[in-house]
C-alpha cells in the first residue's frame, strides 16, 4: 500500500506543494477501495484487531 500511496501523492502534486503523508494517503486509498467493494460488489472486508493493541504500544513508545 505504501508504494501506491507514494505514487498517488506524486500524481496529485499541487502547485502549492501541499503533500499528505504516505500513511494518510494509503489509509484513504484503502478506505475508498473497501467502500467501493462494499457498494458495488456487496463484499464485506474485515480486519483483524487482535494485533492492534500490540502495534499501538510500539507506535506510542516510538513517540518522544
What can you see in these coordinates?
With 64 residues, the chain is mainly α. The chain has one domain. It is 64% helix and 0% strand. It contains 3 helices and no strands. Helix 1 crosses helix 2. The longest helix has 20 residues, at 22-41. The two termini are 26 Å apart. The relative contact order is 0.10. The model has no long low-confidence stretch (mean pLDDT 80).
Write the layout of secondary structure elements.
Elements (H helix, E strand, L loop, with lengths): L1 H10 L10 H20 L10 H11 L2
Query: Radius of gyration, Cα only, in angstroms?
Result: 15 Å
> For the report, how would you describe the main beta sheet?
none
Portion in helices: 55-70%
Contiguous runs where pLDDT drops below 50 for at least 5 residues: none
Average pLDDT for all residues: 80
Count of structural domains? 1
Total number of beta strands: 0
> What are the secondary-structure elements, in order, as H or E?
HHH
Through-space gap between termini: 26 Å
Specify the overall morphology.
flat
Strand content: under 5%
What is the tally of helical segments? 3
Summary, kept brief:
By secondary structure, the protein is mainly α.
Descriptive keywords:
64 residues, mainly alpha, 64% helix
Amino acid at each position: 500500500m505504501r508504494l501506491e500511496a507514494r505514487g498517488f501523492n506524486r500524481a496529485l502534486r499541487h502547485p502549492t506543494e501541499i503533500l499528505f503523508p504516505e500513511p494518510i494517503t494509503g489509509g484513504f486509498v484503502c478506505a475508498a477501495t473497501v467502500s467501493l467493494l462494499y457498494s458495488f460488489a456487496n463484499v464485506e472486508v474485515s480486519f483483524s484487531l487482535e494485533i492492534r493493541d500490540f502495534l499501538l504500544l510500539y507506535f506510542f513508545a516510538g513517540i518522544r
